[in-house]
Amino acid sequence: MSEIEPPKPKSSSGRQRGKQYGSIAEKAKLSAQKALTKQKKKIDKTKTDLSNARKKRDAIIKTSNALEGKKSSIVETEDLKELTPTIQKHVKENIVFEPNNGPQTQFLAASEREVFYGGARGGGKSYAMLVDPLRFCHKEHHRCLLLRRSMPELRDMINHSQRLYPKAYPGVKWREQEKEWRFPSGARIEFGYAENLTDVLRYQGQSYTWIGIDELPQYPTPEIYNFLRSSLRSVDPDIPVFMRATGNPGNIGSMWVKEMFVDPSEPNKPFDVLINTIIGQRKITRKFIPAKLQDNPYLMQTDDYLVMLSSLPEVQRKQFLDGDWSAFEDCAFPEFDPIRHISEPFEIPRNWHRFRTCDWGYSSHACCLWIAIDFDNNLWVYRELYTKRMTADVFAKKVLEIEQGEYIRYGILDSSTWAKRGDIGPSIAETMIQEGCKWRPSDRSPKSRVNGKLELHKRLSFDEKTEEPKLRIFTNCKNLLRTFPLLPTDRNNPEDVDTRVEDHAYDALRYGVMSRPLHPNSYINDEFIKRQKETYFKPADRVFGY
Hints:
The structure is a single chain. By secondary structure, this protein is α/β, with parallel strands linked by helices. It has helices at about 10-70, 75-80, 85-90, 105-110, 125-130, 150-170, 195-200, 225-230, 255-260, 305-310, 315-320, 340, 390-400, 430-435, 450-460, 480-485, 505-515, 525-535; strands at about 115-120, 145-150, 175, 180, 190-195, 210-215, 240-245, 270-275, 280-290, 340-345, 355-360, 365-375, 380-385, 410-415, 440, 470-475. The strands form 2 sheets. The protein has a 9-stranded mixed beta sheet with strand order 3-4-5-2-6-7-1-9-8, with helices on both faces. The protein has a 7-stranded mixed beta sheet with strand order 10-16-13-12-11-14-15. The relative contact order is 0.08.
């Protein structure tokens, strides 16, 4: 057999030619990729230039139509940036309204569902409220409601709108009888007022894509705000729905507005509110935008308004100039000190006496407080039950369940629950007592409210010897601590608390402290002596006692 010869190795010159051919192919590939990338960049640049050119064209057409009064006279800031300096100068000479830099611009550009714009006076809040609903007035199904608390306040906003709206949208018509603006597109802006829930029922069944309430803290409770939210809906997917409100601290409703918008998050930072629905959990987004006088360049042209606000008393100055939501001038209990009157929970000694006190409510909140008495006759509020829409029998069972294993010496319940309001069954108090939850009625003498407030002042004051208060509240009593420190006084009766605010926890506390007065003789008056004589038992026979 002949041997098979192995293949001869390539010469060095052949290997060099192979490498040379490979490097040429790679270079050609890289060159082609570079050429393609360069061509793509040219195409992208051409597209960008074309897009910018279209933006400039649209901005010029939109601005030209606004100046000639052909269509909407609203020109956005982004459109102005696309114009040449010469055209910008001409446009700015004809501007009717331009938002101030800062909070006013942020308010008008906000995309959150609910926004509250509030704080110091003079921040341009009311004018921003007039302008905000105009953003979708070129669409047929845009419906807006702008609300104030009273008609005189509303009239001032209507006067401002009559100077602004015809310039913003040529052809818009004002209908005096309906208090409504009708735009050429078919959009509408309605001006209304609502002082109470009876007034706001006029808007029941209506649908609005935008609802604004100017000076929201003038309302003592959130009932009207929540009622109007139910009318917020849109039939056009291109029109989002918005709820807008403005206001200053220091009004009767400052407490709930602060709780809803100011406390949950930092200023200018949106926050979500989770909502449980039949289709699962959903969320709405809210935001608080603070206002300052310094944000309004028109009022800051001179220092007259600044000097005037600075000259106000300290609390009003904090409210109107600084926009401080924690400053309360008419606070019913200014001596309340969170450091001294609030205590961390601890185990109550078994030999301390305990009792409970309750302010009943079904449609409104019901509050039950549990109070312990130490050996120095100091009161410690150590537990609360704060509920709503719970019937008397269920509420009584809940109270007994909570205090199971404790010895509760007595319970104080609002004396109005013993009244029979035309029905033939047992009263609310009797219903609870039948369930085993024992109560006795609270004091309902003519001056009981004033005396109860005075007793609380005594309890909150500091003992001269121990320098400690005679009333403390555990941190787990969240609703009492939320409402009690900010309770305002009644402006018609400074000796009492304003009953229009959320005072259920306060009433329960007042009933409790009046059952343990520090100086009982101080509340004995002529009316009390008279009632004692009328109800004094006189036996027919003094020997046998009947």
